[in-house]
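Q: What residues go here?
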């Protein structure tokens, strides 16, 4: 959570509370208030003789350089499952989770078990939903929040410095050693290691803070991939069905850059910039991207 010129608050320990993080970001923005203009929705980007022109509503901004730093997780996305439109229950994205106590005494289906899905399940494990099912294609790479009291996210720089051929087996070993064999509970491993998936696909590693224990105890149950929605239930490829009150979709995000930059041939098929971390863009001087590396 540290930002340039502003260290992360220490009062919460290694993991910041939600309100602490929000205040930290707001304080940082306040320090830069003379450089930030809020409430601006960019609707167009074009090249002009002296650089670039950005259109935002009825206003335009001209500059020699334009930097896109909106990140990989700009717009929540929910798949168009068969029958979704006829489902009469509540469907939300994990980005709109809100107060978790609202799901107490409800039947909840969480779709996706990457970092966001695991975070939702961790929150639910500390509350009292009536029944929880986790729909996954593959079990994610999972590590405990702490090992012998040491917060594992503090080792992120160490993992980043290691070759992927070492990261994958280390992550698998940590998962097996501290969380056990999760295949018996339906969390099968992906054929690609957790470090490789994070580096190549942007699939982040899941942090366990209670959801694995809930699965092992039978409080939460793992089901397969969704095949179809009905008015009152959801079916899965494991030939099971479930009648959820609410479906929470931890199904990822998109960059939403296509409408602005689709004509410049700088995005890959997933809408992610081809030049992710401040490299010059060939043939388009003054166009920069930062923070788009998985």
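A:
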């Amino acid at each position: 959570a540290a930002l340039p010129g502003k260290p992360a608050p220490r009062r919460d320990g290694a993991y910041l509370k939600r309100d602490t993080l929000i205040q930290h970001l707001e304080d940082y923005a306040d320090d830069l208030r003379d450089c930030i203009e809020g409430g601006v929705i960019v609707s167009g980007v074009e090249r002009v003789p002296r650089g670039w022109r950005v259109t935002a509503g009825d206003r335009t901004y001209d500059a020699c350089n334009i930097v896109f730093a909106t990140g990989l997780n700009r717009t929540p996305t929910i798949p168009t499952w068969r029958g979704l439109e006829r489902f009469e229950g509540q469907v939300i994205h994990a980005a709109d989770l809100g107060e978790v106590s609202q799901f107490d005494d409800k039947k909840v289906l969480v779709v996706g078990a990457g970092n966001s899905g695991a975070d939702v399940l961790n929150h639910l494990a500390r509350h009292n939903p009536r029944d929880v099912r986790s729909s996954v294609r593959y079990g994610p790479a999972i590590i405990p929040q702490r090992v012998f009291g040491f917060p594992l996210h503090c080792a992120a720089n160490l993992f980043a410095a290691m070759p992927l051929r070492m990261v994958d087996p280390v992550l698998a070993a940590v998962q097996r050693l501290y969380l056990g064999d999760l295949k018996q509970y339906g969390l099968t491993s992906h054929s690609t290691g957790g470090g490789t998936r994070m580096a190549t696909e942007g699939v982040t590693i899941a942090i366990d803070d209670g959801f694995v224990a809930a699965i092992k105890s039978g409080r939460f149950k793992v089901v397969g991939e969704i095949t179809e929605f009905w008015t009152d239930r959801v079916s899965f490829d494991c030939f099971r069905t479930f009648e959820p009150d609410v479906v929470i979709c931890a199904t990822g995000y998109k960059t939403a850059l296509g409408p602005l930059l689709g004509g410049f041939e700088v995005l890959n098929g997933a809408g992610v910039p081809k030049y992710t971390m401040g490299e010059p863009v060939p043939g388009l001087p003054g166009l920069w991207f930062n923070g788009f590396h998985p």
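A: Context that may help when evaluating the design: The two ends are 17 Å apart (CA to CA). The mean pLDDT is 90.
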